[in-house]
Amino acid sequence: MKENYSTKKNKSFRKVVVYSDFIYPEYLGGSARFASELNDELNHFTQLKIYTRKPSGVYSGIKNNSRSYMVVYGFLNILLDSFKNIFIRKDLSISHHYLFGFFSLFLSNAEKNIYFFHGPIYGEEIAKSNKKLFGEIKKRIEFFVLKRSSQIYCLSSFMKKNIPKKFHHKTKIIGPVNALVDSLDLKKIFVRKYDEIKYRKNINILCVRRLTPRTGVVELVNLISKISNLSLTIVGKGELYAQLKTMKAPNITILSSLNDEELEKLYLESDLTIVPSIELEGFGLVIIESILRGTAVLVSENAGGGKDFLQKYSDSFIYDLTIDSSYFRHKAMKAIYEFSGTNCHSKIFEDLKNFSMKRFSQNLLKNLT
Description:
By secondary structure, this protein is an alpha/beta fold.
């Protein structure tokens, strides 16, 4: 067990105590990024304690020792730690993981329990392993968490549809909240010029995804491996990693262990980011991360909240999963062309100002002060 304690203070808020889970810091994924960034912002205003399986890794924030960690080697640790701190007042318990949410309802002794719904756990289990029994068990646990939570948050209207209707009255759609909105000067983002890309022999495409069947990474490799003048880099971890490594093609690169700086470099070097989801996509935050680095995005018709968001600006950012390789490059170039237009990306940047992680975290704590 290892702990790092923050001593940061902000006079705008009294010192409230927040317990938050951060179960998967090792995964490159939207929910991990969201949880990490939210914890960073909350840590400026509160006494925050984070439960995690690993004290370091992608999105862990451990390098600046700014967080208070409880390293969990099993959920028994949560039970023991909760009894140890039973007399400490907890104002708020935040859960991103269904099982931690279940435990925190009983053990955190918090005045308010918030659950961030990142996707239906039953559907995830079936898509990953087709184990219906495990899926049913997880579904019932998640249902209990949804029922007992004071407030439920999700990133898109598409994802809200996956929450039982009886809980919609306490569900709030917050949109693509992202810390990059706070850290970047939107007026200084360098957007790649279409005229500088269209004559190049090779177009660089990036895909940052969980390597699991629902994200469509295998189908994407099969598609792009047939197009010699496109290069694809896939970054992620998951059960399909070994299979993808065996699908050798000269224009495909598969990476897993990257730090934030290496991932940043890939975003900036890429001409296009793709989200090839097949199902169960709440909102791929890589869409926003790519746009805010000046890189165009192309998402599948099944990209859920991400598709809904991009469709407001242009259908050029959406592609049909049945598309063949001869037409795919044309579609990719069309997405780059559309995004490079000043009117298009300026409008997106302006709208993204409404999704400040700093503002969201402050509002989250406002009723506790």
